[in-house]
Amino acid sequence: MKNLSALFLxxxxxxxxxxxxxxxxxNILENLTFKVDTVVMDSGEDIFNLGMGIRSLDLSPDKKFLxxxxxxxPKLLKVDLEKNRLISKxxxxxxxxxxxxxxxxxxxxxxxxKLALLGNNGVYGVFxxxxxxxxxxxxxxxxxxxxxxxxxxxLYGNSIYDxxxxxxxxxxxxxxxxxxxxxxxxxASNTAKIIEAPEMEIVDKYSIxxxxxxxxxxxxxxxxxxxxxxKILISCSAMGDFYEYDPLTEELKFIQIDHxxxxxxxxxEINNRPKSEESFMDEMAKVNEQIHFRKLQWNPxxxxxxxxxxxxxxxxxxxxxxxxxxxxxAYDQDFKLLGETKLDLEGRIDYNVFFKDGKLWSYVNVEDExxxxxxxxxx
Length: 379
Hints:
Elements: H1 2-25, E1 33-40, E2 57-59, E3 65-70, E4 75-80, E5 85-91, E6 104-109, E7 115-119, E8 124-127, E9 133-136, H2 146-150, H3 152-156, E10 159-162, E11 167-170, E12 181-186, E13 191-196, H4 201-205, E14 208-212, E15 215-219, E16 223-228, E17 231-236, E18 239-246, E19 251-255, H5 277-288, E20 292-293, E21 297-299, E22 304-313, E23 323-331, E24 337-343, E25 353-356, E26 359-366, E27 369-378
Antiparallel strand pairs: 1-27, 2-3, 3-4, 4-5, 6-7, 7-8, 8-9, 10-11, 11-12, 12-13, 14-15, 16-17, 17-18, 18-19, 20-22, 21-22, 22-23, 23-24, 25-26, 26-27
């Protein structure tokens, strides 16, 4: 019996060791290395006006071209990411039948090069690249509260256009009359409905607003809408979990992910309506130092999702600077966690990032020329 017990113990120890090694090897980002190159775009005979940076951007479906707007007056820039140069700059009309306003808030590039644009004047429509409006998209749909239907910026300020099925999916920026949910708008019938997503109440819980004499300071939680293989992913900055909505079956799934390296979601009690600026900064620090998840980005080269997460350490004295911690997370196509790692970075990653050819591109201003820090990840 003693020999059998010893053999069983040895077998058990070996089994545990093997399990531990397998568990460690399951993290595909455990031994990640990366390099960062700076790529600068050639403006040719023109110039890049980077006074406001890049506020909203999108890529062509083949990822070869970057589109974004300079504003006041609005000008569409098309940049070749293969040849690293400016292709064209086209001025759009702020007013009139083709008017988009002085400022273009969102841009979405369609499969045929058309653009879905939302301007600060409330116009939401489909334009061609010469600036001609082809179709009006803000039609005040039936089926939802009329106040929301008539407020173009609230309804369409965070939305994506399904070009193939002519539907709009929106997460209202403010919605005091309805429950939190995804708004699905059918352009053919001009009707809308709300798909309730109760776990997203965390967005309002940890969004902080300070009002003083009619002016506001806001530290919001972000909601991201992503279209992937015909389905809509609804994620946010406040938690790693997210929803998947299938328009065909109208099924809404809540996807829970158990992260190990970062918190799964924001926790703790905060005062999200502080009465002083000092209190506003204190509450914001409580939230920012926990975690801030970014948008899920599909990497077709590896057939995985990659996602950034950030912790922000705010300065406690005027002499101190902001400090950032960055984490890279990976999931398979079924949203199983594949890996997570902390990125050893000194610089800052811009909020408008995109993946191209498996590399992360982050905007940087290089002596008033359009540049990108390009991260090549090896794992």
